[in-house]
Amino acid sequence: MSRPKNDTFLRALLKEPTEYTPLWLMRQAGRYLPEYCETRKRAGNFLNLCKSPDMACEVTLQPLARYNLDAAILFSDILTVPDAMGLGLYFAEGEGPKFERPLREEWAINDLTAPDPYDHLRYVMDAVVEIRRALDNSVPLIGFSGSPYTLACYMVEGQGSSDFRYIKGMLYKRPDLLHRILSVTTDSVISYLNAQIDSGAQAVMIFDTWGGSLSAAAYEEFSLQYMRRIVAGLKKEKDGERVPSIVFTKNGGLWLEKIADIGCDAVGLDWTIDIGEARRRVGDKVTLQGNLDPNVLFATPEIVAAEARKVLDSFGPGNTGHVFNLGHGISQFTPPDSVNALVEAVHSHSRLLRK
């Protein structure tokens, strides 16, 4: 299998020269797009949308039909893995994801097993195959998973949390139980991402959304070491092509050098760190991905373009090592035209910088 016609994103991840800075957006297929809302309405609910390979393919392609993006990302949800473990995922309208059976009892934690991705998560693999076929080798497809600690937050809390009292209580009172959850979840994520790679994902990303809520010592013990295990266990090549990996810890700027040391090809940055400072700290060890504040997209097109140029200027000269993205997922309230302004500004200004 040859590289996609537009392989700029893959070249940037592998620190190969690019003619411009490639761009994709976290949560680029989402509720800010009216066509997505229409497809989701037809699906009946969010889980139906995730579990239908046809509809997942449809919404994955929608932002690429609107914008000149350099990569597609599989439409799915990070909580498909704990759902496949039997925790009973459901989405309450207006309340976000919840689990019917959160992990609070020792017996339930000891009974936890890693699901077979080709059995319990076959719908995800079918979606990857269908999306690759529909993309027709135009741009790369990104597969993804939540990090073990982030998944564990939902698995133990039973839903999103503002204080993480259940999982942090377990972390300090019974760290052995949390390590059991994290170990099984790590095995699950490795097999899940490798199955996505075998099905056609050309790069993979680990979303560590809640790792930044930990203390420095706890981050290394309960998040970073497990992501290191995942990166080590990932397939690095498929059909003769390298499959790069990206690790993103929201609020992880304090530990940037340590994240860059775990073996991943790229480190995602949220908007709280200056990307030029990040580049100085890690040198050329990894590609950097990021890191515009998503709320910039509520401004005028002129301001959106100016803020995008600031990120590119801060990264500095050179034609390697940067993938432009937001510092977190795009808001559902974002005006779609703002994304046009962003894409045009990133592509045009980065070409000028290379001259």
Characterize the structure shown.
The chain is α/β, with parallel strands linked by helices. Helices cover 48% and strands 11% of the residues. It has helices at residues 8-13, 34-43, 46-51, 53-66, 80-84, 106-110, 122-135, 148-157, 165-173, 175-199, 216-233, 256-260, 275-282, 301-315, 336-354, and strands spanning 72-73, 89-92, 96-99, 141-146, 203-208, 237-238, 241-242, 245-249, 266-268, 287-289, 322-323. The strands form three sheets. It has a seven-stranded parallel β-sheet. Helix 4 packs parallel to helix 7 and helix 10 (175-199) packs parallel to helix 11 (216-233). The relative contact order is 0.14. The model has no long low-confidence stretch (mean pLDDT 96).
